[in-house]
Amino acid sequence: MAFTQDWFSNSIPAWETSLKSFVGQPSIQVLEIGSFEGRATCWLLDNVLTGHESKIHCVDPWVGPIYERFNESVRAHRDRVVMHRGKSEDMLPAIPGPFDVVYIDGLHLGFNVLQDATMTWNKLKIGGVMIFDDYLWEHQSLDRTLVPKDAIDGFLTVIHGRYELLHLSYQVIIRKNDKGAHFDKQYFDFCQSITNDLAPIF
Ligand SMILES: C[S@@+](CC[C@H](N)C(=O)[O-])C[C@H]1O[C@@H](n2cnc3c(N)ncnc32)[C@H](O)[C@@H]1O
Fold first, then answer.
1. Which single residue of 5, 114, 123, 169 has CA 20 to 30 Å from 155?
2. Which residue CA neighbors atom 8 of ligand 1 most closely?
3. Which atom of ligand 1 is nearest to the CA of 5?
4. pLDDT tens digit string along 75-89?
5. Gene3D superfamilies annotated for this entry (predicted)?
6. Mean pLDDT (whole number) for 4-31
7. Which residues make beta-bridge pairs with 96?
C-alpha cells in the first residue's frame, strides 16, 4: 500500500518506548480514533499487536477514497482489525473496551479532542496508555478552539494525580494509574448537602 501522507513516522521512537510492555502480549486491545489510511494502524499491527487474540478497533468516517485505501492497507491483518465507520461521538458509546491503548487522532477541534478523551478514559484499563496527537499543532488563524492543546491541557488538569506522564512533545503520552477519582471528605459532604437541598425541587 502506498500511503499518500505520513503524519506518523516521527512518533515511532516515543511509541516504541511507551508501548514496549504490550509488545507480543496476548489479547492486547487498542482503540484508534482517526485512522485515515492506516499508517499508525499498520505499525501497531506489525510491532505491538503481535500476540494471540490482540486487536485494534479503528473509528473514522473514512470519507471518499480513504475508505478503500484503509481497507487495502490492513488487508493482510483483516482478522485483527475492527472497523467502526462514523464519527467518534456517534460510534464510541457502542464500543465497550476495555482498552490497553487509546490513540486520539480524529477531529482536531479542541471540543472534539476533549470529547474523545472523556468518552474513552473510563474504557482505558489501569496501566493502559492514552496518546494524544498534535499537542503542539498551531492553526494559522491562531484560533485556540481549532487546535487540540487547550483540550489536552484541560483534560490533564482534571485527571491530575490519576496518570503518569510518559512523553510530552508534539504528542502527549500518559499511563493511567490506579488512584481513581479523588474525593476529599469535605468536598463530598458539600456535594451531598447541595443534593439534599435540591431534592425537594426535583
Ligand atoms: C490526522 S488523520 C489520522 C492519521 C492517522 N492516525 C495516521 O496514522 O495516518 C485524522 C483522521 O480523523 C478522521 N476524522 C475526522 N473527523 C472525525 C470524527 N468526528 N471521528 C473520528 N474520526 C474523524 C479523518 O477522517 C481522518 O482520517
1. 5
2. 40
3. 9
4. 999 999 999 999 999
5. Vaccinia Virus protein VP39
6. 98
7. none
3-state secondary structure 104-129: ECCCCCHHHHHHHHHHHHCCEEEEEE
Cα 114 to middle of ligand 1, angstroms: 15
**pLDDT (tens digit per residue) in 32-42:** 999 999 999 99
Residue with cell 501522507: 5
What ranges make up the beta strands (E) of 20-142?
29-33, 55-60, 81-85, 99-104, 124-132
**What's the distance, CA 192 to chain centroid?**
33
Radius of gyration of the chain measured on its C-alpha atoms: 19
